[in-house]
């Protein structure tokens, strides 16, 4: 999947909107999101905060799994492991997360994700997600 241009998220997720995450697409067990790093995304070392990196990987893996579900149920994270190989990037960098669902059952999906800064993979993640129908909002 090439890096396409941003489009509206299929589901409104206020936290991602607040971060400035761009939805690039999802289909056939694959998904991509991107983020242009700003000062608010940095840690004390002036590189992308690990929480930002893990958020992108979590979201992109869940979306990859959701793209395989005929009912388009949401995917909630059951387990996630991330390896950080180098800093995610500095202010102005555009990082791209790529997700792939490699196995699914009726209610679970197993995914992997990679975070790229230009041509360098900076983090790799594995995750297990459970498909769930949305509950009605509480009053």
From TrEMBL:
Pfam families: 4HBT (PF03061). Residues 47-123 form the Thioesterase domain. Gene3D superfamilies: Hotdog Thioesterase. The keyword Transmembrane helix does not apply. Keywords: Hydrolase. This is PaaI family thioesterase. It comes from the Bacteria. One of its GO terms (molecular function) is fatty acyl-CoA hydrolase activity. InterPro entries: ACOT13, HotDog_dom_sf, PAAI_dom, Thioestr_dom. CDD domains: PaaI_thioesterase. Belongs to the thioesterase PaaI family.
């Amino acid at each position: 999947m090439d890096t396409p241009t941003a489009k509206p998220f299929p589901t409104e997720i206020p936290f991602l909107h607040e971060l400035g995450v761009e939805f690039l697409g999802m289909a056939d067990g694959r998904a991509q999101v991107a983020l242009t790093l700003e000062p608010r995304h940095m840690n004390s070392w002036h590189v992308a905060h690990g929480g930002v990196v893990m958020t992108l990987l979590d979201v992109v893996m869940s979306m990859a799994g959701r793209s395989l579900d005929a009912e388009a149920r949401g995917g909630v994270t059951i387990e996630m492991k991330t390896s950080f190989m180098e800093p995610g990037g500095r202010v102005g960098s555009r990082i791209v997360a790529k997700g792939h669902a490699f196995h699914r059952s009726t209610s679970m999906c197993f995914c992997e994700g990679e975070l790229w800064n230009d041509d360098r993979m900076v983090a790799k993640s594995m995750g297990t997600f459970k498909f769930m129908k949305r509950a009605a909002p509480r009053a």
